[in-house]
């Protein structure tokens, strides 16, 4: 019973669950606002009404998702003071700087121009109104960068000095924090993955309507758009992921070793990539494995004969550097999260490639299973992002700030396990209710489909005020 009420364990579960729930809305917000901006730009340049219909239609889905993301994000940040006060006191001077920039600059930029976009359809010149949605998209991407920079400090602390007297890290170079090599590598990887998630939603919605032979004029171009974005963003996610892997090997070699469950330092052909492995948890006995020789060496060093450090050697090094303790992450979590991230993402790209082939030259599939596959594939990219973040955070353990503070030292000293358990149950119940509301609103708006063209443009070809559309 004492272990079940451990405030550290419960605080980790609470932060993990609320973060994952909040993260459900983040990639859709970033990807959808950019897609809406592209659709409105296409309408601005061509005057084709179906682009205007798509702008309003996916704009409505974006606004629902954005509102839910704001609510859940605020609750998430409260936990830094409630459950992780030791962590906040230790690194608040550094960690808080990019978060302050996110709130004061990026979020207010995003929120302000969302308002101008919503209420400015019939009040602003077309070009200026188009600019408002692009500024909103830039704001959402800037917001993501500042948050990633804050997280990157936890992975690779830079731009600080330790104040021994006060027992805390103090900011010395905000430029170093914002240009952290981990942030520079993680940012494009995350943004391209966000585009995959939003493309998945667009594909699913378009496929649902096309399978019912409705809204053909709008959903055909939407489907093509989603399929091409999925393939392009998927390729860019892989390329940026390669650069993130190099940064990870340089700054957190234990994470790469844990991703591969590599216990012994290996070189060349021995540094193989495991597609699937069954063995004992300590890595001593390997029962079955499917491996690609040289691939881990190439991914880690971009050479076929590079050396990849193993868990055992790194553990010994860390004991010498940081004192006695177990510095190994939970291997089965990192190993399988890394593979699920890759597998789910690539599977969604494969669905899009098949979709492009089946819809080439204006063709539309007649088999129902094709449309069902497109519709039910939506969660793939989202799940890939979620397990990717699980790998990122679990691979850093036992550190909350790598090499500076262990997770067990960051929890609030005055918070009891029972208190955390009560709040965990309350948050889970409230978030469960919000999930039902979110899904219902998104489903209803998506199934309703775009409004008819005559509701967007009057007899003179002028845009109808948006208040009659939303």
Mind explaining what this structure looks like?
It is a single chain. With 470 residues, this protein is mainly alpha-helical. The protein is built from 16 helices and eight strands. The strands form four sheets. It has a two-stranded antiparallel ribbon with strand order 1-2. A hairpin with a 6-residue loop joins strand 4 and strand 5.
Summarize the structure.
The chain has 16 helices and eight strands. By secondary structure, the chain is mainly alpha-helical. α3 packs parallel to α8 (216-251), α3 (49-82) runs antiparallel to α16 and α5 crosses α7 (181-211).
Structural class: mainly alpha
Number of helices: 16
Q: What value does the average pLDDT take?
A: 83
Strand order of the largest sheet: 1-2
Cα distance spanning the termini: 52 Å
Any descriptors?
about 475 residues, mainly alpha, two-stranded antiparallel sheet, disordered C terminus
Question: Layout of helices and strands, plus pairs?
Answer:
Blueprint: H1 7-23, H2 26-46, H3 49-82, H4 85-119, H5 126-155, E1 160-163, E2 168-171, H6 174-178, H7 181-211, H8 216-251, H9 253-260, E3 266-267, E4 273-279, E5 286-292, H10 295-301, E6 307-308, H11 311-322, H12 331-358, H13 368-376, H14 379-394, E7 399-401, E8 405-406, H15 407-410, H16 417-448
Antiparallel strand pairs: 1-2, 3-6, 4-5, 7-8
Helix pairs in contact: 1-3, 1-16, 2-3, 2-5, 2-7, 3-8, 3-16, 4-5, 5-7, 7-8, 7-13, 7-14, 8-9, 8-12, 9-12, 12-14
